[in-house]
Amino acid sequence: MVKSADRTLQILEAFAAAGEPLGIAELARRLAIPVSACYALLRTLELRGYLYELGLRKGWYPTLRWLQKARAIAEHDPMLERVAPILEALGKSAGETIVFGKRSGAEVVYLNVVESPHPIRYSAQPGDRKPLHSSSAGKAILGALPPAERTALLGSLRLARITPNTIVRRELLEKDLEAGAKRGWYATRGENVADVHALGAPVRLDGELYAVVIAGPAHRIESALKSLAAALLHTARRLEGRA
User: Fold this and answer.
1) Is 178 contained in some domain?
2) 134 shares a domain with 58
3) Domain-located, residue 225
4) In a shared domain, residues 134 and 230
5) Tens digits of per-residue pLDDT, 74-92?
6) pLDDT tens for residues 143-156?
7) In whole angstroms, how far apart are CA 174 and each of 30, 171, 177, 197, 214?
8) Total domains in the fold of the chain
9) What torsion, rounded to 10 degrees, do the Cα atoms 73, 78, 83, 88 define?
10) 196 within 8 A of 122, measured Cβ to Cβ
11) Do residues 26 and 125 share a domain?
């Protein structure tokens, strides 16, 4: 990991978490770096137009330049332009949170999230990362890998216990993946978030493997499991251009 790039992103995340201006000393503390190094990063971002100083002892804050650049990037993302309308349609019909993700090492990174309108829901953000073995998106991706590649990857994974329901025995995880492959969709029942159940299906787009997920409170998912699974599989086919 490149430290300067990582620290720049940590600065942005620190402002997002704080929701208010931050001084150099506080930012340096959050990043665990010397004040001098923090000041150099802040000055660089200021000169590029991404931060401004509010005045003596009032701290720094990001400018709208971040938002403008992020919007321009999102508006021209070819993958999200392609999948977003289909994911939004699934969200409306399912009434639950929809996630679209891709494997990144031993994790899944969320590329797009359509949140449920319910006040009690599974809440996530693009950029969130989840373990392969405890997330329905991860299981869908694992289950769709060629057998030799899946075996090698499973052998290298650390099956950490995220919740009391997380599958941490490799042979049980393999059986769970086999069951998912037969159904066409993969499930987690409180394995990543204790009270959240989710269904995931693999999707291949332009030769790359992704996953689409429906996630929500356990009682709502289980009471509508059959219809949600059908909607998920139909959406996977639509994303692949087969429906």
Assistant:
1) yes
2) no
3) yes
4) yes
5) 777 787 888 999 999 999 9
6) 999 999 999 999 99
7) 40, 5, 5, 19, 22
8) 2
9) 30
10) yes
11) no
- Domain range for 121 is 77-239
* Predicted pLDDT at 72: 84
Query: Would you say 236 and 202 are in contact if contact means Cβ atoms under 8 Å apart?
Result: yes
Q: Would you call 139 exposed, middle or buried from its count of C-beta atoms within 10 A (0-12, 13-18, 19+)?
A: buried
Both tokens of residue 35?
């004040």
Strand, helix or coil at 163? Answer: coil
| Residues 60 and 83 grouped into a single domain | no
Count each helix (H run) and each strand (E run) in the chain, helices first.
10, 8
In this predicted model, what pLDDT tens digit does every residue of 145-198 receive, in sequence order? 999 999 999 999 999 999 999 999 999 999 999 999 999 999 999 999 999 999
Q: In the prediction, which pLDDT does 215 show?
A: 98
Angle at 124 (CA atoms; ends 4, 163), nearest 5 degrees: 100
52 token code pair: 């401004």
Alpha helix segments (H runs only) across the chain? 3-18, 24-31, 35-47, 65-75, 78-94, 136-144, 147-156, 170-183, 218-223, 225-239
User: pLDDT tens for residues 118-139?
Assistant: 999 999 999 899 999 999 999 9
Q: Go through the chain and tell me how many residues it has.
A: 243
- CA separation for the pair 189, 45 (Å, rounded): 43
Same domain assignment for residues 90 and 160: yes
Placement of tokens 């999200």 in the chain? 80
pLDDT of 136: 98
Query: Does one domain contain both 26 and 92?
Result: no
**52 or 58, higher pLDDT:** 52
| Residue 55 within a domain | yes
